[in-house]
Amino acid sequence: MSKPVVVVPGLVRKDALAYLGEHVTIKQWTEKTKMPREILKEWLKEADALWSINNVTVDADLIADAPNLKVIAQASVGYDNVVIDDLTARQIPYGNTPDVLTESVAELAFTLVAAASRRVMENADFVKSGQWEQRPSNIKGKDLSRCTLGIIGLGNIGVSISRRARAFGMTVIYNNRKPRPDDKLYMVEYRDRDALYAESDVVLVVTPLTPETYHMIDKEAFKKMKKDALFVNVGRGKIVDTEALVWALNEGEIDYAALDVTDPEPLPADHPLLKTGKALVVPHIASFTDRTRRDMAMLTADNIILGVQGKPLKTCVNKEVNYKED
Ligand SMILES: NC(=O)C1=CN([C@@H]2O[C@H](COP(=O)(O)OP(=O)(O)OC[C@H]3O[C@@H](n4cnc5c(N)ncnc54)[C@H](OP(=O)(O)O)[C@@H]3O)[C@@H](O)[C@H]2O)C=CC1
Ligand SMILES: O=CC(=O)O
Predict the structure, then answer these.
(1) Which ligand approaches the C-alpha of residue 109 most closely?
(2) One domain for residues 17 and 135
(3) How far is the CA of 174 from the centre of ligand 1 (A)?
(4) Do 213 and 303 reside in the same domain of the chain?
(5) Which of 131, 133, 217, 275 is most buried (CB neighbours < 10 A)?
(6) What digits encode the pLDDT tens for the residues 38-97?
(7) Does residue 189 belong to any structural domain of this protein?
(8) Any idea where the D-isomer specific 2-hydroxyacid dehydrogenase NAD-binding domain is (predicted)?
């Protein structure tokens, strides 16, 4: 019997691909350029599974002529490039990779908080350029132990960030659409969004990107933050209105930004955000450690292998169509 066919429309880790290849036939786009959507649609006509990647919009149109598709999986927690309802309508389970990256993402998020609060990058640059003594005296640090961290999106990653913040002596408040019944366990207190902006020295966003969170952080939000607030985003770039962020930094509505995610991505080197001189930006690396990327890729491969066999995925977003154990 021939093996199921899995389409991989870009580069993914070789070790996970080798493992996947023991179970299925892989059809991979290996060009450096993005796979044209029409070619992907053509390949999907014969496919049993798709290993999606975040620059591909996965929707009803993409899979319209793919009658054999049994599963789609991607190596990320966020699935804002995927129209889940379109897959559910076709009874196709979608696997993402929660949990395995939580600690790595929290570590990077807290690294941004700590580095930005002491302006580590700028100060290191003064040393490198021979300006140890000439560094401006207005670049002062914040004592995190005297600061309140406001986390918007206290989910898996938010909780993990809150633990790190408490270890640094920070007070932690949070906002979700509704309070968590277990929040006392984490020693964090719920606030509505406006109260969180008003009280926080550090505002950190780690929600998914949804129609509700798109541009949730806009001019009005920045106006409600403290003038010396540090703003951190590890959720998705489009949760923030980037123009409003540039405005807020230039006008002194907030003090500084530290970002793992931006809109656009990649952020061009001449982008006005970088010209503010008040932003620490890293290129979407929060889960980028060798161990974690391996775990994410292996979990994706497992979800695909299970899916093509008609078995329940390990991690499934649209659980209502996840296959049932006999
Ligand atoms: N930078 C990076 O490399 C990475 C970024 N991410 C991003 O982080 C996101 C969160 O991941 P994770 O913690 O695992 O996910 P979870 O689902 O565990 O947590 C998401 C949290 O966001 C809250 N939330 C959702 N919508 C809103 C809203 N409108 N307002 C306020 N809070 C909201 C949810 O609470 P409630 O439902 O009660 O509102 C929940 O607590 C991902 O979706 C992804 O976009 C994830 C991994 C890596
Ligand atoms: O951005 C990364 C993710 O896992 O989501």
Answers:
(1) 1
(2) no
(3) 12
(4) no
(5) 217
(6) 999 999 999 999 999 999 999 999 999 999 999 999 999 999 999 999 999 999 999 999
(7) yes
(8) 111-286
Atom of ligand 2 nearest to the CA of 78: 5
Atom of ligand 2 nearest to the CA of 97: 4
Check if 24 has its Cβ closer than 6 Å to any atom of ligand 2.
no
Confidence of residue 111 (pLDDT cuts 50, 70, 90): very high
* Catalytic center residues: 236, 265, 284
pLDDT tens-digit series, residues 248-294:
999 999 999 999 999 999 999 999 999 999 999 999 999 999 999 99
On whether ipTM exceeds 0.95, the answer is yes
What does the pLDDT read at residue 326? 61
Pull the structure tokens for residue 100.
């395995």
78 ligand 2 Cβ < 6 A: yes
**Is 185 within a domain?**
yes
Strand pairing class (230-233; 49-52): unpaired
Looking at the fold, whether 267 and 151 belong to one and the same domain comes out as yes
3-state DSSP assignment of residue 118: coil
If one residue of 12, 53, 76 were mutated to test the ligand 2 pocket, choosing by the most ligand atoms within 8 A of its CB, it would be 76
pLDDT at 325 over 80: no
State if pTM tops 0.80. Answer: yes
- 155 touches ligand 1 (CB under 6 Å): yes
Cα distance between residue 87 and residue 170, in whole Å: 42
- Kindly report each contact of residues 89-94 with a partner whose C-beta sits within 8 Å and lies 24 or more positions away, as own/partner: 89/60, 90/60, 90/63, 91/321, 92/63, 92/321, 93/307, 93/312, 93/313, 93/316, 93/318, 93/321, 93/322, 93/323, 94/316, 94/317, 94/318
User: Which structural domain range is residue 206 located in?
Assistant: 102-281
Residue with tokens 């580095």: 115
Q: Are residues 118 and 197 in the same domain?
A: yes
User: Is the beta carbon of 287 within 6 A of some atom in ligand 2?
Assistant: yes
Quote the number of domains for the chain: 2
